[in-house]
Amino acid sequence: MIIGTPNVTSSPYASEGSEAGHINLKSFSSLKESLSQYYSKVFMFGMNDEVLHTGFGPMCHYLMALAVQPINPVK
User: Which residues of 6-17 are buried (b: 16+ CB within 10 A; e: fewer)?
Assistant: First the structure.
C-alpha cells in the first residue's frame, strides 16, 4: 500500500483551505507506527518541494509510506 499525508509538524504553516481538507494528520513516527500494526514492513519517505527523500522526518512537509507484507492477509 502507498499512502501519504501532510506532516502534522507543518500544519502551522498550512493555508485555511488546506487545513479544511486535511484531517487526522500524522507525524513521521505516528504514521509508521499506525501502519506497522497491519504490515510487517513499512518504508517511510518525506517530501519537501519536489524532492522525495528518506531524511529527517519532522522536517518533511509531506509524508509517504510504502507498506508491504500484510500481517493478516485477507484470503
Answer: bbbbbeeeeeee
Type of residue numbered 49: D
User: Taking residues 35-42, what's their average pLDDT?
Assistant: 96
| Percent of the chain topping pLDDT 70 | 83
Say if pTM beats, i.e. exceeds, 0.90: no
Which of 48, 75, 71 shows the shortest CA–CA distance to 1?
71
**C-alpha–C-alpha distance, residues 29 and 41, integer Å:** 14
Q: For the purposes of burial, counting CB atoms within 10 Å of the CB of 67, is it exposed (0-12), middle (13-18) or buried (19 or more)?
A: buried
Other Cβ atoms closer than 10 A to 43: 14
